[in-house]
Amino acid sequence: MAGEPVNTSGEHNWTELEEAKLIEHGQQGNREAVAELVRRHYKVSTYIARSILRDSYDAEDAVQSAYCKAIQHLGRFRREARFSTWITRIVMNQCIARLRSLRSSRSGLEKLVRTSEFTSFIVRELTPEEIAEDREAAVLLRRAVVTLPLPLRQACQLGLQGLSARDVAARLCINESTAKVRQFRARVALRSQLKAARASR
Question: Does the reported pTM lie above 0.70?
Answer without folding.
Answer: no
